[in-house]
Amino acid sequence: MEVVILPSESAIADLAASALVALVNAKPTAVIGLATGSSPLALYRRLIQHYQASEISFAQAKAFMLDEYVGIDPAHPERYRNVIETEIASQVDFAPGAVQGPDGNAADLAAACQAYDQAIKQSGGIDLQILGIGSDGHIAFNEPGSSFTSRTRLVVLTEQTIADNARFFGNDPEAVPIFALTQGLGTIMESRHALLVATGAGKAQAVKQMVEGGVSAMWPASILQFHPHVTVLLDPAAAAQLELADYYKHAFANKPSWQAL
Ligand code: F6R
Fold first, then answer.
1. How is the chain split into domains, by residue range?
2. Ligand 1 binding site (Cβ under 6 Å of any ligand atom)
3. What is the pLDDT of residues 208-234, one digit of tens each?
4. pLDDT value at residue 9
């Protein structure tokens, strides 16, 4: 796990975007895993700028979203499919149908989850998975207690996640759907490179547990300690509880220039 502590959200977005630009230029058919929520927004804005400057094209790429609310009005602006469309997909050159997400309005949700895992496999698997982390340590919507081998499935959101996400629903927790479909921890662990972005003091405890805590379903993101290629990009507030912060800074400052993220 490579932990990189950077001065600002904007420095994080620059570095994360450079990894994506390098990937897609080296492999135009790359499969990208897209997260929703606030954490990746600055990164998406940077990617759009790189696209507008003709430094990246998504024309042959594919993307899979991490998760989706269940039963949300298809036209709701906070439906994750719509958020991804607004924040990135419609602003770059993905081919029609190249960005997929779990269908939270499917008549048969279990079948939709199975089909989604299958679609990821058939695409060749996710080359780079963008992740955020919940204040309770979830990645995607794998809440505490999630099985480490879980696949895409229906989950019930914790009260903490509902409270955290109420800001997207007019600060009304009652308006936040309580069910979601999410890629499982097992699904996410199959990505070839996981790139997690966390900013702000509200993430400090979850980041501490993910990076330096014991691996436990109580803090689902801690499974990433077993992932062969994880990059964690943090601002100082999110990194505030890390015991080895000085080492992570020293390691990054001395990283050989030929070694990519
Ligand atoms: C969203 C997702 C979630 C968020 C997490 C952090 O697709 O998978 O795990 O990444 O809840 O959300 P923000 O970034 O809004 O703090």
1. 2-253
2. 35-39, 66-67, 132-134, 138-140
3. 999 999 999 999 999 999 999 999 999
4. 97
- Strand ranges (E), 48-186: 62-65, 67-69, 99-100, 128-131, 153-156, 179-182
pLDDT-based confidence at 16, cuts 50/70/90?
A: very high
**DSSP-assigned letter for residue 260:** -
CATH 3.40.30.10 is the classification of domain 2-253: no
Residue nearest to atom 15 of ligand 1 (CA): 37
Name which of 116, 114, 113, 112 is nearest 99 in CA terms. Answer: 116
Best probe residue, ligand 1, of 141, 167, 168, 203 (max atoms within 8 Å of C-beta): 141
pTM of model > 0.90: yes
Q: What is the pLDDT of residue 249?
A: 98
Write the burial class of residue 80 (CB in 10 Å: 0-12 exposed, 13-18 middle, 19+ buried): buried
Q: Where are the beta strands (DSSP E) in 59-160?
A: 62-65, 67-69, 99-100, 128-131, 153-156
